[in-house]
Write a structure and sequence with these properties.
This protein is α/β, with parallel strands linked by helices. The protein has four helices and 21 strands. The chain has helices at about 5-20, 25-35, 85-90, 270-275; strands spanning about 40, 60-65, 70-75, 95, 110-115, 115-120, 135, 160, 185, 190-195, 205-210, 215, 230-235, 255, 280, 290, 300-305, 310-315, 325-330, 335-340, 360. The strands form four sheets. Strands 2-3-5-7-8-9-11-13-14-15-17-19 form a twelve-stranded mixed β-sheet, with no helix packed on it. It has a four-stranded parallel β-sheet with strand order 16-18-20-21, with no helix packed on it. A three-stranded mixed β-sheet has the order 1-4-6. Strand 2 and strand 3 form a beta hairpin. The chain is elongated and about 80 Å long. Its main location: membrane.
């Protein structure tokens, strides 16, 4: 039977359609193999499954969109409960860098390459051209360089986790354009400079974790505009200025950690009045003035740490009327007078009040 050119054309189109339905496109497969080529994982053999023409079927850590058969998720974690780790009896270890070939996967929604300890190099700047990205999780590696300047183009990004790396430079101002961002963890890097003043535009954000960097400048007042923000950690930086009183009016803020900065001024009474704030750590700053006498039956702190500051005066007796205060640390200040009786003071150790000017009473071994 003679095959006409028209028949061959139709056959080629048909085979292309069948291939698209039953397997991932060659371009996606090639992009993944180029990504794999720049990585070395010597112990678990996770890349041993990356064989065959269909990267949507049986390739470890790869998931595809079931409708269009395009690569949608890359999920490679070096610490996991997956049986492959249990069988090896160890956590993962991987070297290499992130290939720009990832940017060819224009249907990618999830990029997780986390906790491999030794992946280095920079974040490919072209990732910001992937319009469907919702999750970027690169925690626990040795990635360096800057956060891509135009990261704000990722309008669907909900999770940005770059913690525990060696990323330097400043936080890009474009980051405030991430209107869908809910979780931002940039902690334990080498970021410097200031937090963008209009960070409050991130209206969907519930967690902002920026601890253990080299950030400077003041705490942006605009943070108080983020209605959903529950967890704010700016500890172990070099932040200066006063604590904005507006933070105390945030309706769902439950954790505020400003430990180990260079903050000054007085403690805003609004923070201690906020009945939803359960963890407040203001230790190791240069805060001064009196401890606000605003405690009451709605006060509920699992942790209240005001140690290593320059607070003076008496411990408010109203603290005894609090509904609950678990861990309390007022040590290393300039407080005076008698320690109030009753809860929470009756279950605290002397270390909670050590190194003040003239505190007396139980649990200190100093009579009033």
């Amino acid at each position: 039977m003679k095959l006409t050119g028209d028949f061959l054309f139709k056959l080629t189109v048909l085979l292309a359609v069948i291939f698209t339905v039953n397997g991932c496109p060659p371009a996606d497969r090639s992009a993944l193999l180029a990504f794999k080529k720049q990585l070395s994982e010597p112990y678990l053999g996770i890349f041993n499954t990356w064989t065959g023409s269909d990267c949507c079927n049986g390739w470890y850590g790869i998931s595809c969109d079931p409708e269009v058969k395009r690569v949608a998720d890359i999920s490679l974690r070096g610490e996991s409960e997956d049986p492959i780790f249990e069988k090896a009896g160890r956590s993962g270890y991987m070297t290499g860098s992130l290939s720009p070939s990832l940017c060819q996967l224009d249907r990618l929604t999830t990029l997780v390459v986390a906790d491999w300890k030794d992946i280095s190099g920079e974040i490919p700047a072209c990732l910001t051209s992937l319009p469907n990205l919702r999750i970027i999780d690169l925690v626990g590696n040795k990635i360096s360089g800057n956060i891509p300047a135009d990261i704000g183009k990722l309008s669907r990004l909900a999770v940005l986790n770059l913690a525990d790396n060696q990323i330097s430079g400043s936080i890009p101002t474009s980051i405030v354009n991430l209107n869908s961002l809910m979780h931002m963890d940039l902690s334990s890097n080498k970021l410097a400079g200031t937090i963008p003043s209009d960070v409050g535009e991130l209206s969907m954000m519930s967690r902002a974790l920026l601890s253990r960097n080299q950030l400077t400048g003041s705490i942006p007042v605009s943070l108080s505009k983020i209605f959903r923000l529950a967890d704010l950690d700016l500890s172990m930086n070099q932040m200066t200025g006063t604590i904005p009183a507006e933070l105390g009016s945030m309706p769902v803020l439950s954790t505020l950690n400003l430990d180990s900065n260079k903050l000054s001024g007085e403690i805003p009474s609004s923070l201690l009045r906020n009945s939803g704030l359960n963890i407040l750590n203001l230790s190791r700053n240069s805060l001064e003035g009196y401890l606000p006498d605003v405690f009451g039956p709605k006060t509920y702190f699992t942790e209240l740490d005001l140690s290593y500051n320059n607070l003076r005066g008496l411990i408010p007796k109203s603290m005894s009327s609090a509904k609950y205060i678990g861990h309390l640390d007022l040590s290393h200040n300039h407080l005076c007078g008698s320690i109030p009786l009753g809860s929470p003071f009756d279950h605290l150790e002397a270390s909670s009040f050590a190194n003040n000017d003239c505190l007396c009473g139980s649990p200190l071994f100093r009579a009033c």
